[in-house]
Predict the structure.
Amino acid sequence: MTITSRIISALLIGGVALGLVGCTPEADTTVTSSGTAVPELPRDGVGIARSVTLTSATKKPGTDVSAEGTVTLPQKSHGTVFVSVSWINSQTATVYTRQLVELRDVPGGTERRWTVGAKLPADARDVDVVLGATLVEK
């Protein structure tokens, strides 16, 4: 198992804590500032990492970074999608920052856009962006 696949697996396990920051301004999208309390991924979800794509990401150390992409559920699915985005050290699997976007009431076959932002530490090295996604069906 590669470092990247281990990271994706870890992100999809309930109990992985994620900070919440930014997303698209759609009415069915929720983003909450986590402060010091870090919310958990839902434990009753199903991993759908293959349904999420990254269309762009910035990863310059010491700056505000962003990532955006899309998620398209399988045709017979419907529910709330949680997309997790982690900026990591690709050599050591150290997670520099993580963000989570909640997309509510997503029907199967429909593409939804998402956007997140974060601050990447100045000492970050070998930065890569890793995605995960969880579906909680209605």
